[in-house]
Design goal:
365 residues; Rossmann fold; Glutathione S-transferase Yfyf (Class Pi), Chain A, domain 2; 2 domains; six-stranded mixed β-sheet; 25% strand; globular
Length: 365
Amino acid sequence: MPGLYLSDLTLSHYRSHKRAVIAVDSRPVAIHGNNGAGKTNILEALSLLSPGRGLRRASAEDMTRRPEALGWKITCVLHGPTGLHEIEIVSERGAARQTRIDGKPTPQTALGRIARVLWLIPSMDRLWIEGAEGRRRFLDRMTLSFLPDHAELSLTYEKAMRERNRLLKDMVREPSWYAALEASMAEAGAAIHHNRLQALAALAAAQDAAETSFPTATLSLECDMPADTAALRDAYSATRSRDLAAGRTLIGPHRADLNAIYTAKGIAARDCSTGEQKALLVSLILANARALAADFGAAPLLLLDEVAAHLDAGRRAALYDEISALGAQAWMTGTEDGLFEAMGGRAQTLLVTENEGLSAIRVSG
């Protein structure tokens, strides 16, 4: 099944890249070069083809090339189920980025209707042993890949909750000040919870149907909140006194956590070895990609930063085989081209070098 793919990518004044022009076909892309050459910067630019703040969660100002600080631009041609699209993402002198699809200004959320992007980066390796916030973000990224409107729901919920928390901190007790905010939170919060459960069901089905060399995970959502809108609205009202004492909202989807069990061993992911935790993450990204290929009609773009360095030779070969079977255009980084040897002619290679502050990219294969 053909996936989404980029045929042209240009970065202008983006981080370390003063100007980078990358012309590739639909095959996976293996990017290698020394540390600091700008490999991850390419993946970050591609992550902006999905709604949200990108894989580093950086501001538009942080992405601009220094010392010029002129702003930056990303352009690309995207091929996928909805046809061919020209995408342009621009930030002028650190201002919030603006998106154009086929020459027309559009909100970021529109990207979710024409593209699907998944990523795995080294900072996610501690996902199972750190706080719940990172796991919620991981779950919401997966949910967003299936349901693009999930981003709008999250923004609506967070905006209403910030306003409610401000009232709580100011010790406002008048119920009428809360009613509209709690109604908005309940409607969006119940939908967020439902979307997350739907995404977990899709992942479970994809794992059950797959023949994979990676371990499967049994996922569950831990969230102490009513699941329907009316009951959640009543719960916000009922817990208002407790929330006043705490100065913040103590129930809702923002308090959820994602639990994972290494299925074959019956061990919680947080108690697994570092290698097993990494393998579980790779497995979930692949399951997400397989589910999307069936749901969206095309495999997603995969952004895999330094993933090969943390897998043994057998696991690397298995990963490349599964990527090829998916038909996904995976953009993978590593310090050595030998890490991608098992890909052979199935991939094209980008060598990224840096000299006196200027990056250079050479495509081969």
